[in-house]
Write a structure and sequence with these properties.
By secondary structure, this protein is of the alpha+beta class. It is built from 2 helices and 5 strands. A hairpin with a 5-residue loop joins strand 3 and strand 4. It starts with a strand and ends in a 12-residue tail after the last strand.
């Protein structure tokens, strides 16, 4: 089993980290990235932990930051599709595969 990121999800992580670095500090940005990596490792160990969503997707909220990771389990892969701020509209990133 492995974790992969949709290219746009990778961009989501970079944009969130840049926001925290700009509005907070490099330490806060590093904590965001560390929390994301911790969550990705957790999904790898427990791929069914997230709440079911439409189209075979699941969502799991980060515990420290107001972000939700939307992913899909495909064979031996946890594919992270969207990393979205909880204030974004519900359909954000919905067209990503």
């Amino acid at each position: 089993m492995k974790v992969t990121l949709h290219p746009a999800a990778e961009q989501d992580v970079h944009e969130a980290a840049a926001f925290y670095e700009r509005e907070g500090s490099p330490i806060v940005a590093a904590r965001f990235v560390a929390e994301f990596k911790r969550l990705a490792a957790l999904l790898l160990e427990h791929p069914d932990i997230g709440s079911p969503r439409s189209n075979g997707r699941r969502g799991f909220a980060m515990s420290v930051f107001p972000y939700t990771v939307v992913y899909r389990v495909i064979a031996d892969e946890v594919r992270i599709i969207v990393v979205k701020h909880d204030s974004k509209r519900p359909g954000f990133g919905g067209r990503r595969a």
